[in-house]
TrEMBL record:
PROSITE patterns recorded: AA_TRANSFER_CLASS_3
Homology family: Belongs to the class-III pyridoxal-phosphate-dependent aminotransferase family.
Top-level taxon in the UniProt lineage: Bacteria
Pfam families reported in the protein's UniProt record: Aminotran_3
Keywords: Aminotransferase, Pyridoxal phosphate, Transferase
Protein name per its UniProtKB record: Aspartate aminotransferase family protein
Organism of this sequence: Metabacillus mangrovi
GO molecular function list: pyridoxal phosphate binding; transaminase activity
Amino acid sequence: MDRSYLIKPQIGGKLPEISFGRGVYLYGADGRDYLDGSSGAITCSIGHGIKEVAEAMHTQAKKISFVYRSQFTSAAAEALAAKIAEWLPGDLNHSFFVNSGSEAAETAMKMAIQYWQEKGEPSKTIVLSRWRSYHGITMGALSLSGFPERRERFQYHMSGVPDIAPPYCARCPFGKVYPECGLMCAEDLERSIKRRGRQNIAAFIAEPIVGAAGACLVPPAGYYEKIREICTANEILFIADEVMTGMGRTGNVLGIQHWDCQPDLAVLGKGLGAGYAPIAAVVATDRVMEAFLQGSRSIMSGHTYSANPQSAAASLAVLQYIENNHLILNAEQQGDRLKTMITELDEPFIGDVRGKGLLIGIELVQDRASMKPFLKKQAAGARLIELAFKNGLLLYPASAGVEGGDGDAVIAAPPLTINDRELAEF
Ligand code: PLP
């Protein structure tokens, strides 16, 4: 048998090999090149082969790559935590570092539960989430994910509670139209809290703009303001899962900043390391941190590689690069252009084009007039992705459409560095 490493599409097949990357392009060992229209998995937000990041990593590796988080801190981890606090809105000032988005979402879940224990309210243990959401692949993060295809096999190990309707205006779960709907999708949170009892609920977690599970669902104006109001009134924490939307991707530092809503915990991943190193974080407000300081003074979580200086140095150089090159502004401007270009394609199979900045979802339908969805088994998204791939463009798969997780879509999310010429080529 072939001695390959195990990765889904590779079982029984071989992936093409990449030799190197430069900016928005990837160059294959077979001489083919690709425009990275998905930043890998919406990750490589500053593009490939950035010299400044490579140099920062080289310098750090020569000093020290690893210290154990409970024995030592490092200048790199301290500087990164300070930079994140400077970037993030309000008093989201306290970073807890982990290595992947799943770990970060799961850590946020645990921190929310522990927060209420520290406050003397141990019955508050349920973490609510929405249908049509994705928070990660480890058991806790998966349990928060309202993504039937991914959770089905493991349903007997699920502790999170996806119970809230998604803010999906193109196919409103209540059959309403905004603004006459009165934001019933946000009020759905209140219904769930009432049914389960606020004394049992620790937090509500949501992706500000739904990624893979909904192909960039942008809730309407007022949605997160209402969510914040409901969370505050019922004394439950609001966790913004910014793994896909964070660190500039949508034209703001955080996706939630498109609304007037301050989360209690923010979850960062993907673009934080931008593909240069595995790093993710949970960022807490002063108020949340205060409960830990007044209580047990420890967070009951952590991984061997948490806050390792090597990843921290890479991430710090990534954020510096974004700042120096004004890439958040570029994401906003080029995102608007790309969205317009895709909309103007005027193809009957493009049912909806949505998203913010350089996070653009394209819902594929059999016929735009009726919005009749392609079912997953028809593999319209997979075929579009394959066709684009053959033509040297990378796109990312997503779900959309009818309830139950079926329906098809793709995501366009090139690096935030993309310029006019590359955009035209895209
Ligand atoms: N949260 C969101 C919103 C994501 O999009 C993802 C990954 O796609 C995750 C969490 C999990 O991140 P990771 O794949 O790094 O574990």
